[in-house]
Amino acid sequence: MAEIPLQPYAYFEGQIVPSGEAKISIATHALQYGTGAFGGIRGYLDVSEESINIFRLPDHTRRLMNSSRMLRAKLKVDADSLGTVIQDLVAQNNPRSNIYIRPFIYKAGIDLTPRLNGIRDDIAIYIIAFGDYFSMDTPLRVLVSSWVRLSDNIIPSRGKITGGYINSSLAKDQAEEAGFDDAIMLNTAGKVAEGSGANLFIVRNGTLITSPITGDILEGITRRSVFMFARDSGIPVEEREIDRSELYVADEAFFCGTGAQVASIGNVDGRPVGDGARGEITKTIQDIFFACVRGQDSKYDHLLTKVPVRPS
Ligand SMILES: Cc1ncc(COP(=O)(O)O)c(C=O)c1O
Question: Is 160 one of the catalytic residues?
């Protein structure tokens, strides 16, 4: 697979530098032990093409700071100043397309012991141009993975902890190699957790249902936004445990996340979800989401941080 080109500038060791100059030692603790945590943030080109609309930036920087607390990281930035750095970096790159912003904190020191305390931490950010991660036209075919979602007492799912993503990678490979688009993982209690990189909603009898945040899932920011969009559209939402067999009898299902956006699921384990086509409630949520992020619905402007960009 071709490597994804980075935008020209990155943030590294406290300053904005050409991306090619952002290099770390092969002995870095985070590289050896997965002792990092990351964020994934999307910026959308506004319909006016005059700004990049960063979706829920303060929520993302706050969550990254929470992940960094789990890693006992000591950083020179806080959530607000990180938000400012991200806006500066977007402005400097002046992208003319939708982007994905990847801030990450990492144990930057060199130490052979797999510990968290007492190792130098740092933060870096890169940006790529990014389109759709999943098809927005064709509902996804997904597999319930035999890989179990890691649990809070193993590696906390509510932190986006670098090493924990091996769990997602195992499930994703299994699904793709069996001809599916993605995996749904069950947690150690056997309840539905989430996809390899997205939260999950099902629809039963007109109600949106999603797993609770104590169910070994990432506390997704898109997930929280779906609650808001559903409430504003009069669609009831329930946060409760979901059984695997409910996936087989659901009327609709979709993934949501920064990468996934809102992606309809048409088939689980070879069984059609509803009639296999994108459902009405999924479409409603998808339409509101895209109108919001493109800056077409001023009601949701408070969810966007607009960074002005110039014509190239
Ligand atoms: C495992 C996992 N679950 C859920 C999500 C969705 O979270 P968010 O909506 O905050 O991007 C992600 C990231 O996108 C993820 O990696």
Answer: yes
